[in-house]
Amino acid sequence: MRVEPFIYAITDKLAHEYNGGYWEFYALSNGGFYMAPCSETCFHVACENGFGGSMSADALGITVCLYAYSHLSFGDPSAFTEICAQQYHWLREYMLGHAEAGDILQAVD
Q1: Cβ 24 vs Cβ 41: under 8 Å
Q2: SS3 assignment for 32-91
Q3: Is the pTM of this model over 0.90?
Q4: Which of 15, 17, 64, 101 is most exposed by smallest CB count within 10 Å?
Q5: What is the CA radius of gyration of the chain?
Q6: Partner residues linked to 54 by β-bridges
């Protein structure tokens, strides 16, 4: 119950034009999972690390899920933090084959 609301909050912070909506949920063949806004819109993304650029809804979803998994993996060691760390690595592995991998990597660096 902590992951989904955190993903929405990160999306609000990184993509100012995002104003809610439906999301698609994706289970990856390597065991990973991510969610992305169900939208044909490109979003302007501005990150604290200085990255700024346009991303598809799918790339935005991957980006915010990577942010969330990373952040949540650094809590007190528990089964939950281990799951978040594993999800981060599975999603990152998948993301490397994405058409917008370069922008995603810059956004999460």
Answers
A1: no
A2: CEEEEECCCCEEEEECCCCCEEEEEHHHHHHHHHHHHHHHHCCCCCCHHHHHHHHHHHHH
A3: yes
A4: 17
A5: 13
A6: 44
